[in-house]
Amino acid sequence: MTILLEPSTTVPGSDRRRTRHYLMCRPEYFEVSYAINPWMDTTVPVDVDLAVKQWEQLRQIYLDLGHTVELIPPVPGLPDMVYAANGALVVDGHAYGARFAHPQRFAEGPAYLAHLRDSGLRSATEAHQVNEGEGDFLVVGDLVLAGTGFRTDPAAHQEAQELLGRPVITLRLIDPRFYHLDTALAVLDDNTVAYYPGAFSAGSRAVLRTLFPDAILATAEDAAVLGLNAVSDGHNVVLTERATGFIAQLRERGYNPIGVDLSELFKGGGSVKCCTLELRS
Ligand code: ARG
Question: Is 274 a catalytic residue?
């Protein structure tokens, strides 16, 4: 797939764009052999060849957009390792490792940390507190938004704040379908987010309104196809093609939405953002 890059001088909002460094994991061993979120159904068959093909298309979009994509080798027996976002949180070249909530995924934490130790980062630190990396930590400008309620322990929010020296804002998730923050909130640029209000507690909704009065509010329909599980470089927003309403909202606000088909990885309860860990230098 080829993506035509619009000339940056004429596109509204394109000055917000930055090239990014991503880490991804090819879904060679992907399957749904256990169910740890409401999207996973072990009786529904998965087409692993199609999963790899769709994932390759996503990777190619990032490359066509001029981003760097680093790969971590997949490990047999860790089918969810494709969801690289959960592997760590990396800010200013410092990686805060993941410590998974479920035993089925526990071994992914050390696997990602070992890779990040060899990635030329400034540091890579093992976590003491349960946290699922960028699944529950999202960086917006100088802030880190942090989800809790299903996976990441609020104690990890404190641990990340101490390690990274960025303000970490705790947000409480209340709907099990949106078990990670990145299923309910998308960072679009350094000042702008989109979210589905129904996924958050009343107090957290109030916090989001205070911090982001101009946020895009996504509908229940777009949230239910994991439309908010999107990756933005500040201008181009890669997301599931199923989130048609959100795609229109993004366009109205001057972003360039790029729709993809990740139907197989959706069966594990993930979409674009889940497959993508940003390595911030
Ligand atoms: N099956 C995985 C789990 O339930 C999906 C993880 C999705 N990743 C994400 N960043 N939301 O843990």
Answer: yes
More confident residue, 153 or 16: 153
Judge whether residue 222 has pLDDT over 70: yes
In angstroms, the CA 56 to CA 78 distance is 19
Per the CB < 8 A criterion, the answer to whether 198 and 225 are in contact is no
136, 171, 201, 202, 242 from 205: Cα distances, Å: 16, 8, 6, 5, 25
Any atom of ligand 1 within 6 Å of the Cβ of 147: no
Contact between 24 and 63 under an 8 Å Cβ cutoff? The reply is no
Instruction: For residue 162, give Cα distances in angstroms to 12, 14, 16, 158.
Output: 37, 33, 29, 6
CA distance 127 to 113: 10
Annotated active-site residue in 67, 94, 115, 180: 180
CATH superfamily of 17-278: L-arginine/glycine Amidinotransferase; Chain A (3.75.10.10)
Closest CA to 159 of 81, 96, 100, 205: 96
> Does 271 contact ligand 1 (Cβ within 6 A)?
no
The one-letter amino acid at 207: V
- The lowest-confidence range among 1-10, 47-56, 139-148, 157-166 is 1-10
Q: Is 180 a catalytic residue?
A: yes
CA atoms in the 13 A half-sphere facing the CB of 38: 11
Does the pTM surpass 0.90? The reply is yes
Task: For the chain, give every domain's residue range.
Answer: 17-278
Residue carrying structure tokens 């190619």: 60
Identify the active-site residue in 67, 115, 157, 274.
Answer: 274
Measured from the Cα of 151, ligand 1's closest atom is 12
> Which helix (H) or strand (E) is 56 found in, with range?
helix 48-64
Q: What would the pLDDT profile of 130-165 be if each residue is shown by its tens digit?
A: 999 999 999 999 999 999 999 999 999 999 999 999
